[in-house]
Amino acid sequence: MNRLRSFKQRWGILGLIAIAWIVTLGVCALFGHLFTSHLNQDLKNRLQAPSFSHPFGTNNLGIDMLGLAIKGARISVLVGLAATAIGFIGGSLVGLTAAYWRGRTDRVILTFLDASAAFPSFVAAISVVLFWGKSVRNVVLVIGVLTIPVIARIVRAASLPLVERDFVLAARMQGSRHSQIIVRELIPNVIRPLLGFAMITVGITISVEGGLSFIGAGVPDNIVTWGQLIASGRATVEGSPHLVLIPASLIFGTILALNTLSSKWLRGRPFPIVKESVAETTVSANASDAAKMISSNPPTDVVLSIENLHTYFSTPFGSLRAVDGVSLQLRRGQMVALVGESGSGKTMMARSLLGLVPSPPRVAGLPGRVMFDGQDLLSLSSEELRKIRGRRIAMIFQDPMTTLNPVMRVGRQIADTATLHLGLSKKEATRRALELLIEVGVPDAQRRMRAWPHELSGGLRQRIGIAIALAAEPEILIADEPTSALDVTIQRQLLDLLDRLRRYRGLSILFITHDMGIVASRADEVAVMYSGRIVEQGSTLEVFAHPRMPYTRALLASIPRIDHESHKKLAVIGGIPPIAIGPRVGCAFAPRCPDVIDACRTEIPQLVGDTHQAACIRNVVGVT
Ligand code: SF4
User: Fold this and answer.
1) Residue 465 contacts residue 496 (beta carbons within 8 Å)
2) 319 CA distance to ligand 1 centroid (A)?
3) Widest pairwise Cα distance in the chain
């Protein structure tokens, strides 16, 4: 009873009428021919108006119009469904290709779509049907092909924002193939609005078939469709308007019903809404059981060596220097923090390591190497990189809300990564996913395996992101501001977790953050970035105790301290970060630097020092 009431509430009276209409139409299309095979001429009763014996009247041959309408539903619906299927398959392929590969591929496809929009498609449909000959197949093909550009635009528009989302980037980072990303990450996320639009398209294609048949360019005359009924009734429309009005009303009613169903269906099935109310719990005691300690004193061998890395982007105003000659080393079991304001190049540097830079395309041929396990990552093919991403170098992202695929259960997301990289069977991968959930401290892990991302809090989602990153047992974890979207309690739990992982697993972590407080308490080394360059680096203790670069000092001064007076304002860095376009002249921090001297505006400071390096002219000349 309750289910019936909630069904009524969800669809409303209009929705229920629309469902009844579509169900009736479906029954007529499937079984109507069984009852209409004996429709006979009855010239004595020709052109009868609607009556009790003939609810839809009769046509110019005296045939019952109700029977003809039922008979015509079969081909009209078939044309609508088949043409829509062609349009959606073709349009989805084109739209997904444009959105996923973007850049030149997108521009070329968009040019064709624009050109097709300017093309008189109905005239083209008439011409092609008349040229190929009138048949149901030709009508379906023509309407289906002409629908492709419309669907392609919709699919492209729905997919473009998703391609930039972290869960797609995470899938690339995990080494998934393009086809796997499209099938598993993109399509499930666009299918719902597309199905809604598909309902509308079925109605539209039925009406297009009607229009073609009306002007004699549709199906052959001996095949009954609603369009054919309109066409055959137009000769007697003045005396018997019901011959045109009834089939036209059927088409109109079908479009209206499908539109209503589409809007009700989409409204009844919203995209996952993030709930933040799930209580956090502390790390499970099982976590320590699940992991084995490797060493409490991490060895110091270098696992990743970034040498003079450059990432420039072409812009209409010149090359944008997102990363401008960065060198950095990461050792086994070490956490190196990469700090700086937003826009300083931290994230771009991390993504450049693994070829994850977004469009516009990176300028090719720039100097630099990223040495990992004896090979330069920048020289690897995309297939070779794919085997390293996710498997040996994993990444977790800033926003746990966007990192996970919203339409896939979290257990499966973890298990899929284990299957992809470790070749585990489904059962083994599921067991591994459960172990990982326990290891990263997800309470009630067995139940959470079947949870959807929107059912979890931000902290739990971030733990799931870490579990996915660990699923293939990587050697390096790049953590791109993983705690900035979390409250301080959850932040601390996650940082504790990362600490344990590097101690127990020997995991090396490149930790990107703008939070100097986190750096002070967790990182072994710190590298400060400004305008695409590292301007100071060294052990955390040294940099925090004796910052040499005014920019670092300004960042440190902006940390809230418990020993400060409560009413004292935090220090801010005046001005805004520069846009690194055009040749570099002088120190990029000069316009904002309180210690600037004339030489700063002409000389480019280089990193100098041994274990503690800084790029500041005044540091070099000793003027402080
Ligand atoms: S080089 Fe000059 S402008 Fe740049 S940080 Fe040092 S003192 Fe400031």
Assistant:
1) no
2) 24
3) 114
The single-letter DSSP state of residue 313 is: E
CA quadruple 590, 596, 598, 601: dihedral, nearest 10: -10
State the pTM of this model.
Answer: 0.62
29-80 pLDDT, tens digit per residue, is: 888 777 766 677 777 777 788 888 888 888 778 888 888 888 888 888 888 8
Measured from the Cα of 590, ligand 1's closest atom is 3
All domains of the chain, ordered by start, with CATH? 78-268 (1.10.3720.10), 541-624 (no CATH)
**Tell me: the pLDDT tens digits for 214-244?**
777 777 877 888 888 888 877 777 778 888 8
Closest of 408, 407, 472 to residue 436, by C-alpha: 472
Looking at residue 362, what is its pLDDT? 58
Angle at 63 between CA 58 and CA 64, to 5 degrees: 60
547 Cβ closer than 6 Å to some ligand 1 atom: no
Ligand 1 lined by 549 (C-beta under 6 Å): yes
Alpha-carbon distance 117 to 133, whole Å? Answer: 25
CA 329–ligand 1 middle distance (angstroms): 25
Which of 172, 159, 184, 165 lies closest to 102, judged by CA? 159
In this predicted structure, what is the pLDDT of residue 530? 92
